[in-house]
Amino acid sequence: QVQLVESGGGLVQPGGSLRLSCAASGFTFSSATMRWYRRAPGKDREFVADISSGGGLTDYADAVKGRFAISRDNAKRMVFLQMNNLKPEDTAVYYCRVDLGRTYWGQGTQVTVSS
User: Distance between CA atoms of 53 and 50, rounded to whole angstroms?
Assistant: First the structure.
């Protein structure tokens, strides 16, 4: 079955960096657009970034443009989110998502930005 497993979250100071990873299985990874979402405390889940199946097209939420970078390794069935210049408002649970006729989510990884 489809599985998405995120990792790489943690506690970081403002201005710091983290790299999130999502390991995928159970579907043809190289054919799927992959997405990152996040849910901040008390807020709805929101789009962060996505990347096309071949990695040539990416899109970002305005709040993270210029600071976050999404990438993928189709050979390893992994998608990544490099997060730089982190801000307290980036604090959230970050989720990996894939749409295959229905939507699949990972379990999420907590990112906390605080001094």
Answer: 10
